[in-house]
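Inverse folding, one chain.
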């Protein structure tokens, strides 16, 4: 590990530690109610001891080898975490707040990104990085925004779907699928969800105004795990409500739907990541990174293809399948016709601006 990487890792670990201590103190405000019950507090405290020790050790090592800004900032973060009580901080009341800013999810997935995904992208890259790619700060802002609003967006979309389904009395099928084994439930959810996702995704490519919303996701010219975070908030809400509706009509248990959501977080990270992953024969049955990279390609033959996120057979069924057999990857990414601006806020306003071209 280079002193620069050590300094950067120390900084992420330090910030993660501050987030962890803040979540212990204010769980009602900063943690996702859906997963709060899964935490074992002694494990959280143990992880905090490990992250703080690693922060200080890496920062000091990096300082001793001439790095300055990042290790100093990391030590400052560790000091803040310590001042707030460190691993021994008292656990606050979970009732004070409704988890509107899910800092726990940002800390957990941020650490996974920094400690697992980013090192894999450096060690086994599909395309070797030449320095830092353009617009990485924009995508990091998306990552932070998406993670902090996990509960707000989930609550909004499941409430909208729930009110529709129960309001219209569409509950005749309830009481059937919840008796199935969980693996069968997950498979059924994946089939229904990917079918709806296919239809919505295709509509976003074919309806002019929806395309301006979705063009934001396609505007990144570089593919990596962070680039997948770039999604317009309208697209997130539309997809979540659209997928939740049939799942609620069919009466799947909410816990299994959430578990499927968790699996899709992993799938989405893999699909966009710049990791040289080989799927072999599995590529025919499961959407791979190469499959979704072709969806993001700006090469003519790949435009408007590969909409599925889990099952390639859906694209084969509707004639939108494009996967060169010679294990080739695309060389160009991005949008062809739209002029999507740079920056998170400009991109969020982009589909709402009058005079945008369709
Ligand atoms: Zn698309
Ligand atoms: Zn994508």
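Residues assigned per position:
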């Amino acid at each position: 590990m280079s002193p620069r990487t050590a300094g950067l890792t120390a900084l992420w670990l330090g910030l993660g530690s501050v987030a962890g201590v803040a979540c212990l103190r204010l769980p009602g405000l900063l943690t996702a109610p859906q997963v709060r019950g899964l935490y074992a507090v002694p494990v959280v405290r143990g992880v905090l001891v490990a992250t703080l020790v690693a922060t200080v050790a890496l920062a000091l090592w990096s300082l001793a080898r001439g790095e300055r800004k990042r290790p100093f900032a990391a030590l400052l973060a560790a000091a803040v975490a310590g001042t707030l009580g460190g691993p021994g901080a008292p656990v606050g009341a979970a009732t004070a707040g409704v988890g509107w800013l899910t800092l726990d999810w940002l800390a957990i997935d941020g650490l996974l990104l920094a400690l697992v995904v980013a090192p894999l992208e450096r060690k086994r890259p599909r395309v070797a990085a030449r320095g830092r790619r353009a617009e990485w700060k924009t995508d990091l802002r998306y990552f932070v925004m998406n993670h902090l609003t996990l509960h707000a967006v989930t609550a909004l979309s499941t409430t909208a779907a729930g009110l529709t389904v129960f309001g219209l009395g569409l509950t005749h099928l309830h009481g059937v699928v919840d008796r199935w084994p969980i693996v069968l439930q997950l498979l059924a959810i994946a089939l229904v969800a990917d079918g709806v996702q296919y239809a919505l995704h295709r509509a976003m490519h074919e309806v002019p105004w929806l395309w301006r919303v979705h063009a934001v996701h396609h505007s990144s010219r570089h593919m990596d795990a962070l680039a997948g975070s770039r999604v317009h908030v309208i697209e997130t809400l539309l997809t979540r409500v659209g997928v939740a509706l049939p799942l609620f009509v069919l009466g799947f248990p909410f816990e299994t739907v959430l578990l499927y959501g968790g699996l899709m977080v992993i799938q989405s990270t893999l699909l966009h990541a710049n990791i040289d992953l080989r799927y072999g024969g599995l590529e025919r049955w499961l959407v791979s990174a190469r499959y979704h990279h072709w969806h993001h390609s700006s090469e003519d033959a790949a435009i408007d293809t590969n909409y599925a996120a889990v099952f390639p057979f859906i694209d084969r069924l509707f004639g939108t399948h494009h996967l060169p057999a010679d294990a080739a990857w695309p060389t160009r990414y991005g949008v062809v016709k739209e002029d999507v601006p740079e920056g998170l806020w400009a991109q969020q306003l982009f589909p709402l601006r009058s005079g945008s071209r369709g």
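The CA atoms of residues 28 and 96 lie 5 Å apart. The longest helix spans residues 182-206.
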